[in-house]
C-alpha cells in the first residue's frame, strides 16, 4: 500500500522507521480466500510463515454498507485472528490453535504507537460509513481575479486570493463544538488562521414558508454576553508530511448546525491560489462534517460540484451504476478550475427581469488581443435556463472599440447556412441536462474585434441563494493545460424582480398620571413596518388545504407524487401563510 507511514522519519536520520515490504501474493506462497463476504483469510503455503513480532500491512477493497455506520457504533468493529497447526520441523498439532478475535485498536489505546510529527495518530480501529451531503457547492466569488492562478513571477505577498463561496445542506446535524472541514487541492492555502465571512445579506433573505432557507454558518445569540461564542477556523495540511500549504480549513461551530428539511448554509472563506494548475484540482474539493471529537459524520463522496445541476444529474443514476457513471464525468463538469487570466470588459443586460418569464440576454465585450481559437462556456445562475431553440440566437462582431459598441453598428454572422468562421458565425449548444450552460465547443475570436450575442434565457421565480447569483465566463474550459485555459471571470447577476408584501404592527403604551383633581392618560403609538421580498408563485391545479389541521398538498400536475416534486406541507394559522405566498 502507498501509505504515508513508509516515509515517516521521526529522528531525521534519512532512514524511514518503517520500511515497506510485501506479503507474497504468489499462489506458491499462499492464497487469499473469502467465505462469507465479511471475512478474508490468508492461508500460508507449506514452508511459508509470519515471524514473531513481524508487522503486516494489508490493503483491501470493500463495499460499504447501505446505511450510516459511525465509528462509535458497536457493530462497527473489525477483528483479526491467527491460527496454526504447528511449525516445521516440530510435528503438526492434532488440532488447529486459534488466538481469540482481537479488535483493531487506535493510537489512543496504546500510547507507544508511533504518531506523526504534529502529534496526530496514524492508527484507527475502524472506518466510518457516513451519509453524503444532499447539496454541496463551491464557487468562486464575483471578483475580477477569483478564477485565475497566482502569477509565478510575482512574490508571495502578491499571490491571487479570493473569498470562496461555500454552500451546503446537511443530512445530519453538526453538534455544538463540531466541525465543518473544507478539503482543497494541494497548493491552495487557507492560512494557519483562516478567515470567514457571511455572504451578502440578500442570500439570507426570507422567500416564503416553503422555500429553502439559507442561513449563516453561525448567528450570534444576542441574549448571551459573548453572543454564544464564535466560529473558530484553523488551517491544516494534507497530506501532513508533504503538503506545503494549509489546504484544509477546520471550522469549529459554537452552536448546532441543524439538519432540517429546508435549511441550507452558506458562507465565504478566504483562500490563496497556487501558481500551478492540474486536472486533479477539479476532482479534489471536498466537504466533511465531524462531531466534537473529530469523528466524521457526513461528507462529499465525490468532488464538490461547481455547477449545482451536475449534482442533480447524479440523481438519475441508480446506486449500483452511480460509481461507473461518475467515472465517465468529464473533468470540467466536476469542481471549478483556475485560468491564466481574468476576463475584462464583458457586460450582461436583460430585456426584462420579470420572474418565471423569458428574457433576451445580451452579452457584450467578448474579445482577445490576438486572434484566438478556443472553447467558451457561460454558466448562468441556478434556476436560469438558456433556450434550446437557437432560432432566436444572434451573434455580432464589431471592429475595434475599447468602450461600448452599439449592436446596431455590428454585423451578424449567424444563420442557417453559416460556415465555420469567427465567433459571430459559430453555433452554441444548450443541453437539457444543464440548461444553465451555453457552450461553444470551438470559436475563433479575431484580433481587433469585439463580439456580442443575444439569446433567450428563462428567469427563475427569484434569484438563487443556494448557489451564487453569478454568471461564470470561461474561455478554454475543456483544456487541461493552463496555457490554453485563457480567461475566466464571475460576474454578479442582477436581482430577479419580485413582488413585495408589507406587514405593519402597532405597539401601544399607556401612561397614567394621577393628581388630586383628575387622571390623565397619555398614549404613545409606535408603528413598525417590515418589508419582505417574496417570489410570485404559480398556483397549480393541485393545491389543497385543510383549514382545520393546517396540512396542505402542492403539486404541478393532476397526479404528482412527492418524488416528482409534489409536497405535503404543514402550515400555520389555518393556512393563512399558504394563501399569502400563492
> Helix content range of the residues, please?
under 10%
Number of helices: 3
Helix/strand-derived category reads mainly beta
The backbone outline, from C-alpha atoms, is: elongated
Radius of gyration: 30 Å
The tally of strands reads 33
User: Strand share of the residues?
Assistant: 25-35%
Strand order of the largest sheet: 7-17-16-10-14-13
Q: Low-confidence parts lasting 5 or more residues at pLDDT below 50?
A: 401-409, 414-420, 499-544, 555-563
The largest pleated sheet is described as: 6 strands, mixed
Mean pLDDT: 79
How would you characterize the overall build of this protein?
With 582 residues, the protein is mostly beta strands. 4% of the residues lie in helices and 31% in strands. A 6-stranded mixed beta sheet has the order 7-17-16-10-14-13, with no helix packed on it. Strand 29 and strand 30 form a beta hairpin. The longest helix has 9 residues. It is elongated, with a radius of gyration of 30 Å. The two termini are 59 Å apart.
